[in-house]
Amino acid sequence: YDHGAGVVLPTVYERTTAASIAAGAINLGQGFPDAEGPQWMRAAAAEAITSEAGPTNQYPPGIGLPALREAVAAHQQAHYGVELDPSEQVLFTTGATEGIAASILAFSEPGSEVVTFEPWYDSYGAMVGLAGAELRTVPLTAPDFRPDLAALRALVTERTSMILLNSPHNPTGALFTAAEITEIVEIARQAGAVVMSDEVYEHLVFDDAAHTPVLSVPGAEEVAVAVSSVGKSFSLTGWKVGWVTGSPDLVNRVRGVKQFLSFTSAPAYQWATALGLGDDRGFFAANQEQLQRTRDLVMSGLMEAGLRPYLPAAGYFILADVSPVTDKTAAEFAVELVERAGVGAIPVSALTLPSTQRDTGSALNGMLRFAFCKDDEVLDRAMSRLDQWI
Ligand code: PMP
Ligand code: GLN
């Protein structure tokens, strides 16, 4: 991770969005849905802002509105059977991003090591760098991107302060099994490290597979915090309502940092998110069904264009190997794709260590990430542009 460059440059997501707009391309780079989230949640947020319904527009409690903390606990109970005390085990954060940042700052000292799987979500590398810690990685490899737990065990030492787990995984779409997550927790326990589990894609799981929350596995209570948010589950990525859950002690340590990052944020969105978590009115199932369809549409489109896509079990991204159609790296190919084919995609190398980027043998340098959380008609157009240009 290049600390200086990471702080100064816009993220790869923003750069791809800007390049797509400049080229008039279809943006399958940054992950945000075309379709807006539930109308009734948006109406509830508007109502909370403009009427006497719900909270005032003044500072809500730093740990979050009580209604939101209770709804997060009730949602975990209803979906996973995980019991949480809303007053001590649920912390509101400004998006999962703040929960990730506050957890990394809370648990990783300068000079310590943080271990995660590679490729990763970009804020992990940036925050580990800002915390003065060092990122160590275990590569996930095609075609199924299963975590290599022997390699993880070998990398975790007494210097390890945290293991960053992300399941469902961005960008590979891998869904870690209960057995894998249990073993990761055990590895952390033995090393005296904390596990931060990023579960923002918890409701975007396909083909009747099931998400395993870290807090449902044995031993997790002592060492793990989980992070999730409204953005992916309800297609409301701009709302930035997130939450951290775990034992009172660990959550309190994250709170200690979080209070000096944002302190708090918009009560209306917390209020409306609580409503959705309490009863999603069928949104999760309908969204899952729609995404599974667009996943399959993009899988066949990418195959027809000659790329080698890998079927994701969850999330809203597909990784595809570009080496069947070009000798260029995926990063170079992405520039041509946006400018000449009119389709924006994320080179996976932007989500890896510099040493991996320099490694000509790494398959990750030949992969692009395509988002499929878009309207059918947009995806159809993008796929035929690829097919024609490649
Ligand atoms: N973690 C992962 C794996 C993500 O893909 C994202 C992007 N939504 C986030 C965290 C950030 O979530 P939020 O928008 O709630 O900050
Ligand atoms: N989570 C989204 C993605 O992975 C975008 C997040 C962002 O733009 N920071 O594409």
TrEMBL record:
- Per the entry, which co-factors are needed? pyridoxal 5'-phosphate
- One MF term from GO for this chain? kynurenine-oxoglutarate transaminase activity
Q: Please report the stretch or stretches of sequence annotated as the Aminotransferase class I/classII large domain.
A: 26-386
Q: Does the keyword Transferase apply?
A: yes
List the keywords (alphabetical).
Aminotransferase, Pyridoxal phosphate, Transferase
Does the keyword Transferase feature in the UniProt annotation? yes
Q: What is this protein called?
A: Aminotransferase class I/II-fold pyridoxal phosphate-dependent enzyme
